[in-house]
């Protein structure tokens, strides 16, 4: 039996029972919540504004940009925003609940994925990314930790791409220039564009997909900081994998 969490705004309590912690991230705690009207189980990302430097407003703008992008997308393999409650002290974002955790945990549990399982996960992730790109959205931080799984039963698993904090909507005629993403999964174009001019396109997500597939079927990182002969940057630029 889950104990209801009292440390949430009354506006939230009126609609949801907020229960146990599911995890935490840079933006705050993620909690299990149940919508009172229909008992729908959801994940609630609760951001305490006083601890997240909201006076500058840039953090809130970034979060609301992520929410607006997610609301504009509609695909079975992309996590859905169910509700947003913005109060004086807290911003609460309610999202579809993926019961089985993330792909990184799944790979660690199994050491590596069997080929058929890897194919199913990768195919669904590709469908999600195609949907993003069809809507001119570039994710820019694709990695196993940002791919959630709906079910522990492999034959019933549906991939849910999440964490759009680095994502953006791009004009088809322009190039992106921001250095962002997770180092082990970023494309060479992003590395080269940093401090050297130029830019990159939505194709950087395709590079990340390839690295994710490698990790799925080998259980090992494609690039590592543990090599003595090549630094991580040179491994990526020279496309030298383990």
From TrEMBL:
GO terms for cellular component: cytoplasm; nucleus. One of its GO terms (molecular function) is protein serine/threonine kinase activity. PROSITE patterns: PROTEIN_KINASE_DOM, PROTEIN_KINASE_ST. It comes from the Eukaryota. Residues 16-242 form the Protein kinase domain. InterPro entries: Kinase-like_dom_sf, Prot_kinase_dom, Ser/Thr_kinase_AS. GO terms for biological process: mitotic DNA damage checkpoint signaling. It holds the Pfam family Pkinase. This is CHEK2.
């Amino acid at each position: 039996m889950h104990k209801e969490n009292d440390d949430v705004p009354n506006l939230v309590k009126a609609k949801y029972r907020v229960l146990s912690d599911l995890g935490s991230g840079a933006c705050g705690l993620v909690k299990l919540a149940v919508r009172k009207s229909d008992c729908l189980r959801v994940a609630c990302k609760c951001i305490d504004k006083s601890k997240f430097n909201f006076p500058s407003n840039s953090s809130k703008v970034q979060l609301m940009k992520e929410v607006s992008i997610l609301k504009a997308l509609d695909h079975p393999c992309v996590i859905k925003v169910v509700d947003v409650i913005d109060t004086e002290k807290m911003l609460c974002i309610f999202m579809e609940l993926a019961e089985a955790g993330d792909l990184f945990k799944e790979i660690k549990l199994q050491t590596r994925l069997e080929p058929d399982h890897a194919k199913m996960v990768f195919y669904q992730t590709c469908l999600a990314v195609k949907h993003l790109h069809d809507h001119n959205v570039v994710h820019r931080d694709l990695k196993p930790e940002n791919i959630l799984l709906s079910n522990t039963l492999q034959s019933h698993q549906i991939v849910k791409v999440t964490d759009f904090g680095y994502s953006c909507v791009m004009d088809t005629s322009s190039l992106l220039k921001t250095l962002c993403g997770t180092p082990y999964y970023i494309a060479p174009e992003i590395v080269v564009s940093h401090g050297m001019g130029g830019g990159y396109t939505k194709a950087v997500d395709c590079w990340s997909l390839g690295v994710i597939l490698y990790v799925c079927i080998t259980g090992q990182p494609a690039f590592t900081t543990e090599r003595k002969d090549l630094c991580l940057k040179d491994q990526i630029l020279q496309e030298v994998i383990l």
